[in-house]
Amino acid sequence: MSVGIEKIGFYTAPYYIDMVDLAEARNQDPNKFLIGIGQKQQSVIPPSQDVVSMAANAAETILTEEDKKTIDMIIFGTETGIDNSKAASMYLQSLLGISDYARAFEVKQACYGGTAGIQMGINYLALNPDRKVLVIGADIARYGLETPGEVTQGGGAVAMLLSSNPTVLALDGKSAFYSKNIMDFWRPNYTKEARVDGHYSNDVYVDFFNRTFNQYLDRYNKQVTDFDALVFHLPYPKMGVKALRTVVPQEEENNPLWVEFNHSKLYNSLVGNLYTGSLYLSLISLIANSKTIPAGANIGLFSYGSGAQGEFYSGVLGEFDRKLLKQSVDQQINRRKRLTITEYEQMYRSGLKETADLSINYSDDDSRFVLKGRAKDKLIYLDQVTGEDK
């Protein structure tokens, strides 16, 4: 029996900034962002969107009513939680109309949460092949205005429906992992903005990739050439470049692994950092934009969550409508409004306030699901199609 990803969907907010604009506003050489980081654009998340509404917008593009009846588990990977007790998956279950007879919970380990959800989901499906699991990776990356990490902000959501009909990616069960308690990136409870030791985090990322990748090769008697593509967790595109060049010299630009990597980083360079969703946006970018990767290709995936957890695992690309996926994601990205840096700064500062009652202006947000605000300490979401509050 085969299990894995049957459907995959993506959402990002309807606003972005251009990295040239940001560089000029910060008195930086634009090539520092465009080449040194590999970032061209960055999604900006308005107060009317949080991880729940973004997850719902991503999932509603792929789920049918029949899917919702067969989902036994909703696993929400995020490091941008909306409550210290209640899981984001509870709100999502209600917004999407998924059966109450389902497990629903949240997973946190920095950017690794979505991968943890996938591994739990495929284990469940191995015992329950007639059911389905919904896995979410949704986050908002915030480092603060005029900080070194500002260029690696962004946000969005990836929704993945797992089943025993893995038309997108069949997972073969082969995996290698490594974890260690370190302080390369973290976010204390008292702040919405992350703390990061940038150079150290880069070094740890590459180290964890090499540890898990080599462990995988040794454990399963594989070689680099057994892979048709490698996709990476990409907080920014240059990070994947640093990792890939440790196993394939970058001067081998015609090597298939470099060719496919360039396809896999395209969407990340336009959206920015999704934390838990970044690896899976890379996967989407690969299969939507590559014209050379065939069905049946062997894909290696490197997942990394600071603090730190790394995992390298693999799967086989399935047969599905890639043009439809590309059309959906391109539409998400191309619909965004370009903000001036002043507008971006105002939007950044107007995030959800820590008050019991708050009304949010969502009039410019045409997404199906939006966050209306908070009343008596309770979050209120709106389905703009049905007009229902949730």
From TrEMBL:
Keyword Transferase: yes
CDD domains named among the record's database cross-references: init_cond_enzymes (cd00827)
Keyword vocabulary terms for this entry: Transferase
Segments forming domain Hydroxymethylglutaryl-coenzyme A synthase C-terminal: 174-246, 266-367
InterPro entries xrefs: HMG_CoA_synt_C_dom, HMG_CoA_synth_N, HMG_CoA_synthase_prok, Thiolase-like
Keyword Transferase annotated: yes
BP GO terms, sorted: acetyl-CoA metabolic process
Active site (catalytic residues): E79, C111, H233
GO molecular function: hydroxymethylglutaryl-CoA synthase activity
Pfam families according to UniProt: HMG_CoA_synt_C (PF08540), HMG_CoA_synt_N (PF01154)
Binding site for (3S)-3-hydroxy-3-methylglutaryl-CoA: D29, Y143, K242, N273
Residue ranges of domain Hydroxymethylglutaryl-coenzyme A synthase N-terminal in the record: 2-164
Family according to the record: Belongs to the thiolase-like superfamily. HMG-CoA synthase family.
Name of this protein: Hydroxymethylglutaryl-CoA synthase
